[in-house]
């Protein structure tokens, strides 16, 4: 995908080319079509990220110009804050659950429904449905499911003769409940990536393996999965970067509670940075998030040896 | 060795179990919206005793509900429009015009693929405030567009690169300028990718929560996820009302999904398959 010159202008002198460019509107096109993207992207993506680094050196409530320079103090406070440790650990747990439970589940289901039949299409649609729902809506529905007075979990427990549990108010259960919802919400996305890849595996390879007497499980393990390795690597990348940014689902479910036990990096920087207008402190958390994302992206590319653009 | 039918039965059983776990909570929400709060307590999961649509009708009669949806719709539509126009224009430049620094500028614009949006949220709040855009639609539209540009440009460029070169050569000989070619040939020929990116951007904008939460404070401009959280705050434990509200917001999403699923899936897998 190299950028080739499509103009088919024969090689001539520079002056000639400039003239040609003016006539064909090459420069006009360049000057009209490119700047909007550059300006928007620089103003609302690059500049804010650079600002975050700058702000993180100040103690600042967001009003007036930042003037109270505190050096690395915000980072020091972050490292000393036990809630931030919890947030980091929770984020790590989300990554692990996504990689070790969600992705294998998605892969297994993809192998069950990748063939193009009407029933398979139906199941695929159903499995993919949670992905397109808004996280907030999914979070609210599940907080009903887990509600101690009304919820489905508590009525199941009642049916088994147990006391009802206020899952989301319980230190031990709140985060596992959130992880369950994350798997529920996103496994369909990974499944779709695998299905697209599985449909690209040449049929004769699978047939040949079957003729050789391979069982379906062996075909999956030794033919299909190795051949879609690229898709698995890409979906793993999405899983990690996505897990780092989990926010929407937590807010309606626990809002970081009980007693700050279910924060992720993003809910942490929202609650302790933005809500309390500690812009400097919150920016330090944002920089940590940013460095983690970039660091993991590079490390991931290195170890898997794949380009993971997109 | 298991026979084919046993294997298939097992497969279907697994699929049905997973499907019930996926659909169960959604159906419970739908049914719950018809129930009274006391019935909900004893029967959270199954069909309601009587189909009393009062909760639903109450919400539908409330102007706020429609205002939230309208706000979200306008913001999403504008985000799609801007992303398509700005993204396609930039991608066209990289695909058609060779110029000094093209590679570097393209890599710069694609950096956004790696950047977590949330890391920029505090400075974005400050920037939007300093620009005087707080509590306006643009506070959501512009940052959303900017963060969607990288993926849009990547997908557009891949598509434009595959358009037949002969077309441009012929038009060029006939004296067609780059700008006109973009407008009269590239864009009309690219409807599949425009639709894919458009649908994908629309869904993301429609569901966005963090950005509107930070930059919108005025209730009259709330998007529906904010309105829903507001509603939940007002009705706290009246789960039947909350479930009715959630269901009403989910229904358009599901309908849209069924209508546009081809494009949604293409948008999701498009980037990864190329990689």
Automatic annotation (TrEMBL), chain A:
Gene3D superfamilies: MetI-like (1.10.3720.10). The keyword Cell membrane applies. It is found in: Cell membrane. InterPro entries: MetI-like, MetI-like_sf, UgpAE/MalFG_permease. GO terms for cellular component: plasma membrane. Residues 88-300 form the ABC transmembrane type-1 domain. The chain crosses the membrane at residues 27-50, 94-114, 126-146, 173-198, 219-247, 279-300. It is a multi-pass membrane protein. Belongs to the binding-protein-dependent transport system permease family. GO terms for biological process: transmembrane transport. Keywords: Cell membrane, Membrane, Transmembrane, Transmembrane helix, Transport. Pfam families: BPD_transp_1. CDD domains: TM_PBP2. This is Sugar ABC transporter permease.
């Amino acid at each position: 995908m190299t950028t080739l010159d499509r103009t088919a202008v024969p090689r001539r002198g520079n002056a000639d080319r400039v003239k040609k460019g003016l006539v064909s509107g090459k420069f006009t096109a360049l000057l009209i079509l490119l700047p909007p993207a550059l300006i928007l992207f620089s103003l609302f993506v690059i500049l804010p990220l650079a600002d975050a680094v700058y702000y993180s050196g100040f103690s600042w409530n967001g009003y007036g110009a930042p003037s109270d320079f505190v050096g690395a103090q915000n980072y020091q406070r972050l490292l000393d804050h036990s809630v931030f440790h919890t947030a980091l650990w929770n984020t790590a747990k989300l990554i692990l659950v996504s990689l070790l439970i969600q992705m294998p589940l998605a892969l297994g289901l993809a192998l069950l429904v990748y063939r193009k039949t009407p029933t398979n299409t139906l199941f695929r649609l159903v499995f993919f449905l949670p992905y397109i729902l808004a996280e907030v809506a999914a979070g609210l529905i599940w907080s009903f499911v887990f509600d101690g007075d009304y919820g489905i979990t508590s009525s199941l427990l009642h049916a088994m003769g147990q006391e009802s549990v206020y899952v989301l108010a319980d230190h031990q259960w709140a985060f596992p409940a959130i992880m369950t919802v994350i798997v529920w919400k996103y496994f369909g996305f990974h499944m779709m990536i695998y299905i697209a890849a599985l449909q690209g595996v040449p049929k004769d390879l699978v047939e040949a393996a079957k003729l050789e007497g391979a069982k379906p499980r062996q075909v999956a393990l030794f033919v299909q999965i190795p051949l879609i390795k690229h898709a698995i690597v890409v979906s793993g990348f999405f899983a990690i970067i996505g897990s780092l940014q989990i926010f929407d689902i937590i807010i309606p479910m626990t809002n970081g509670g009980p007693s700050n036990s279910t924060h992720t990096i993003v809910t942490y920087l929202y609650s302790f940075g933005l809500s309390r207008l500690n812009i400097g402190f919150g920016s330090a958390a944002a920089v940590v998030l940013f460095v983690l994302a970039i660091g993991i992206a590079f490390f991931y590319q290195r170890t898997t040896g794949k380009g993971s653009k997109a | 060795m298991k026979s084919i039918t046993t294997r298939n039965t097992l497969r279907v059983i697994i699929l049905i179990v997973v499907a019930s776990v996926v659909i169960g909570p959604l159906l419970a929400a739908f049914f719950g919206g018809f129930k009274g709060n006391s019935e909900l307590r004893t029967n959270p999961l199954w069909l309601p005793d009587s189909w009393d649509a009062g909760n639903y009708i109450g919400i539908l009669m409330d102007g706020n509900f429609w205002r939230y949806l309208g706000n979200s719709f306008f913001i999403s539509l504008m985000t799609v429009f801007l992303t398509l126009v700005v993204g396609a224009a930039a991608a066209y430049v990289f695909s058609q015009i060779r110029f000094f620094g093209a590679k570097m500028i393209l890599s710069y614009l694609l950096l956004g693929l790696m950047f977590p949006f949330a890391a920029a949220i505090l400075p974005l709040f400050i920037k939007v405030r300093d620009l005087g855009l707080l509590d306006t639609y643009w506070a959501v539209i512009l940052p959303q567009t900017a963060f969607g540009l990288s993926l849009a440009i990547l997908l557009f460029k891949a598509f434009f690169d595959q358009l037949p070169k002969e077309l441009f050569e012929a038009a060029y000989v006939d004296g067609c300028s780059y700008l006109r070619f973009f407008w009269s040939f590239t864009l009309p020929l690219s409807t599949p990718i425009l639709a894919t990116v458009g649908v994908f951007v629309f869904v993301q904008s429609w569901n966005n929560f963090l950005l509107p939460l930070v930059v919108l404070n005025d209730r009259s401009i709330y998007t529906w996820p904010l309105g829903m959280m507001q509603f939940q705050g007002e009705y706290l434990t009246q789960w039947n009302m909350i479930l009715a509200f959630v269901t009403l917001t989910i229904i358009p999403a599901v309908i849209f999904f069924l209508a546009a699923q081809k494009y949604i899936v293409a948008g999701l897998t498009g980037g990864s398959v190329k990689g």
